[in-house]
């Protein structure tokens, strides 16, 4: 047994696996299904070993039909189960968009409040692994458009470990977007790490000069930028949104009220993105606090390139954040 | 519509304090009227306006600290011209407004500051929060000079400021100006004899000082070598038609100011004497005008009172020459094969080699010598 407060070395992948394992142990209604989650151990090896531990009834390989197995998940949830449905990447989730939007997100409404759908969908998102234009996009911002679901984006080990159980307690559909580039990320996590709240953004670094609002795969790039800026005497506040729907605007609006400047760092495409939504809310609710136009750093609006240097060029970069903030603060 | 801006009262002045207005909006002003008082490291100065018209609006209130040179302090409209609002609208074009961040606007409203008086430091001159809280680049937020006198500098503070101002100007001079030096000895016997005779005819209060002869002689020599009368700006010598001779005045507490005797070339000896007394008096009383600080086209410094024989001066930029005079002392003097004792003055010229060459300088000293040999023509 590990002691309370003790830190253990782990990875993002292991943290997610541990979260699934804990949920399976604590609640017998919980089961995992998806493409290659069983015998193969998951496309990103998240569920490796779980088939052996929990058996084929609870760790279920599915046919290559996102629409079918997400639909099955909805049915299971309606039937009283607590399914965890893994969709290999966010691009493939579009095949299940009809199930997610037209069924999972609407049942409670269309049943007059009778049927909750406690479905949990996990999927890998984002670029950085040279998986090209059909496996690398960041579409979580699209899902944040849909009322009736929650959209989570764990960036830290703590959130990878803790968000899943909290999401399973939610009576309505929750989508968790795990940046695929983070799976091998190593770090330390409290041995007794457990569920975390999923409604609030977190200030990951305090600052006074600018609010850097980000989430998911851009969090650590943004924190790196904040460190570089600090050496130049610019104190950036870094906000990890964690949850894209519902958006915790109170946290970032309060930050903007302190710093009077906002930069949104979002790996999604710029047009019609979650970054646009955040910018709009700042302008709507904190207009008189702004001392500079809100800036956004997003992915270049192209299909994600395969070539490494081009993929890097398309994704938000630490240097861009640094340069943008320098320009904003020096006028 | 003309802008009345924070003047540059010295080669290296970057900012000044607006101490008081002598006019208010709606007042009629004429070219040369003193309309404001500005304090710099070198003291308090009266600032004139250089156009005729009506004070349209006062843009800065007294008490703002460190207002950058060039900041609009007030606007003057030509008499008969329309008042501010239509004029500004016409100037700026319909719909164009001050660029200011929402936070800056909110703060300005709270502080009761007119954004038109604030200089923006952001992109395209946009006004940010910091610009409002530290208006026009000043160092402190609004400190209204209600009691006026309470901000008086202590003598030590004044000295420190004075030294800073001198340091800035002289460092720049030494850094930028390639000086060349020429000197000549001048037989002053004719000049002094003439002066003695002239003063003998005058009532005591109208007597002339030797300095007046020297100033007049410098002006005369400059007529022959106008290349030394001007400013070096924008990489070239800008000759000045009028001779505004800066006269170095030592202050009692220490430090130095070289106010200009305006148009010395056209003034008679009597006028020069009156102007010099007035100028020295006002310099020591701290009531100089801005134009007297900025207009000098050449500087004259005389350290003869202190027994100095030769002065090697440092040019006050952007001027291109400085004439130095030592003590008039009896010295052996050879002339036409005979050795005699004469009152002799050593005159030096420090000149900017970018603007002129030694040839000009030599001609100038020669002309100066000649002028002092013929005092009756001065």
Features:
heterodimer; A: 331 residues; alpha/beta; Rossmann fold; 2 domains; seven-stranded mixed sheet; five-stranded mixed sheet; 12 helices; 14 strands; 35% helix; globular; B: 378 residues; alpha+beta; OB fold (Dihydrolipoamide Acetyltransferase, E2P); Chloramphenicol Acetyltransferase; 9 helices; 20 strands; 26% strand
Present the secondary structure layout.
The complex is a heterodimer of chains A (331) and B (378).
Chain A: E1 7-11, H1 12-26, E2 30-34, H2 50-54, E3 59-61, H3 66-78, E4 82-89, H4 97-104, H5 107-110, E5 120-125, H6 140-143, E6 150-152, H7 157-168, E7 174-179, E8 186-190, E9 202-205, E10 210-214, H8 219-231, E11 236-240, E12 243-245, H9 249-259, E13 262-269, H10 274-285, E14 295-299, H11 308-314, H12 318-330
Parallel strand pairs in A: 2-3, 2-4, 4-5, 5-7, 6-7, 10-11, 10-13, 13-14
Antiparallel strand pairs in A: 1-8, 6-12, 9-11
Chain B: E1 2-5, E2 15-21, E3 28-29, E4 34-40, E5 43-48, E6 53-58, E7 67-68, E8 72-77, H1 84-92, H2 102-111, H3 129-133, H4 155-176, E9 179-187, H5 189-201, H6 210-224, E10 230-233, E11 236-239, E12 245-247, E13 249-250, E14 256-257, E15 260-261, H7 269-285, E16 288-289, H8 290-294, E17 298-302, E18 321-325, E19 329-335, E20 338-352, H9 358-373
Helix pairs in contact in B: 6-7, 6-9
């Amino acid at each position: 047994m590990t002691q309370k407060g003790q830190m253990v070395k782990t990875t993002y992948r292991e943290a997610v696996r541990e979260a699934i394992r804990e949920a399976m142990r604590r609640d017998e209604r919980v089961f995992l299904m998806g493409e290659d989650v069983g015998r193969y151990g998951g496309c990103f090896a998240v569920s490796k070993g779980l088939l052996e531990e929990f058996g084929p009834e609870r760790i279920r390989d599915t046919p290559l039909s996102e629409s079918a197995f997400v639909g099955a998940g909805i049915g299971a949830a309606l039937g009283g189960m607590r399914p965890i449905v893994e969709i290999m990447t966010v691009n493939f989730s579009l095949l299940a968009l009809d199930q997610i939007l037209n069924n999972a997100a609407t049942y409670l409404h269309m049943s007059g409040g009778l049927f909750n759908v406690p479905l949990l969908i996990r999927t890998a998102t984002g670029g950085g692994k040279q998986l090209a234009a059909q496996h690398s996009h960041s579409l979580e911002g699209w899902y944040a458009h849909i009322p009736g679901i929650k959209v989570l984006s764990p960036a830290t080990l703590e959130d990878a470990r803790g968000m899943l159980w909290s999401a399973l307690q939610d009576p309505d559909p929750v989508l968790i977007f795990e940046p695929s580039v983070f799976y091998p990320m190593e770090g330390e996590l409290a041995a007794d790490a457990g569920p975390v709240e999923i409604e609030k953004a977190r200030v990951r670094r305090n600052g006074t000069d600018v609010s850097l609002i980000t989430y998911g795969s851009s969090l650590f790039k943004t924190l790196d930028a904040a460190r570089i800026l600090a050496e130049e005497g610019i104190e950036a506040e870094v906000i990890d949104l964690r949850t894209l729907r519902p958006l915790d605007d109170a946290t970032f609006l309060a930050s903007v009220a302190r710093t009077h400047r906002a930069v949104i760092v979002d790996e999604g495409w710029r047009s019609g993105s979650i970054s646009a939504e955040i910018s709009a809310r700042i302008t709507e609710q904190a207009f008189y606090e702004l001392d500079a136009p809100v800036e956004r750093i997003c992915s270049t609006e192209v299909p994600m390139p395969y070539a490494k240097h081009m993929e890097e060029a398309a994704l938000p970069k630490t240097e861009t954040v640094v340069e943008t903030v320098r320009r904003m603060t020096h006028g | 519509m003309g802008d009345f801006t924070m003047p540059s009262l010295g080669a290296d002045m970057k900012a000044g304090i607006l101490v008081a207005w002598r006019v208010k909006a709606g007042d009629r002003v004429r070219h040369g009227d003193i309309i404001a008082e500005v304090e710099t490291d070198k003291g308090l100065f009266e600032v004139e306006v250089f156009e005729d018209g009506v004070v349209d609006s006062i843009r800065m209130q007294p008490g703002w600290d460190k207002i950058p040179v060039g900041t609009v302090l007030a606007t003057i409209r030509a008499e008969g011209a329309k008042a501010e609002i239509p004029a500004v609208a016409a100037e700026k074009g319909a719909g164009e407004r001050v660029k200011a961040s929402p936070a800056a606007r909110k703060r300005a409203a709270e502080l009761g500051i007119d954004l038109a008086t604030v200089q923006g430091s952001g992109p395209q001159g946009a006004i940010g929060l910091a610009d409002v809280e530290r208006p026009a680049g000043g160092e402190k937020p609004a400190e209204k000079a209600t009691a006026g006198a309470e901000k008086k500098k202590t003598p030590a503070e004044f000295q420190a400021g004075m030294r800073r101002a001198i340091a800035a100007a002289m460092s720049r001079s030494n850094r930028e100006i390639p000086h060349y030096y020429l000197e000549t000895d001048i037989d002053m016997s004719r000049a002094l004899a003439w002066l003695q005779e002239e003063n003998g005819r005058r009532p005591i209060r109208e007597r002339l000082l030797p300095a007046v002869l020297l100033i007049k002689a410098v002006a005369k020599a400059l007529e022959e070598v106008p290349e030394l009368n001007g400013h070096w700006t924008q990489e070239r010598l800008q000759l000045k038609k009028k001779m505004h001779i800066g006269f170095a005045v030592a202050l009692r507490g220490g430090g130095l100011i070289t106010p200009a005797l305006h148009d010395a070339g056209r003034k008679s000896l009597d006028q020069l004497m009156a102007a010099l007394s007035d100028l020295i008096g006002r310099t020591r009383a701290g009531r100089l005008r801005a134009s007297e600080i900025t207009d000098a086209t050449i500087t004259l410094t005389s350290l003869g009172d202190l027994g100095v024989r030769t002065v090697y001066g440092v040019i006050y930029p952007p001027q291109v020459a400085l004439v130095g005079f030592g003590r008039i002392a009896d010295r052996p003097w050879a002339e036409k094969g005979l050795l005699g004792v004469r009152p002799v003055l050593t005159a030096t010229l420090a000149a900017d080699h970018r603007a002129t060459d030694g040839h000009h300088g030599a001609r100038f000293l020669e002309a100066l010598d000649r002028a002092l040999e013929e005092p009756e023509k001065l």
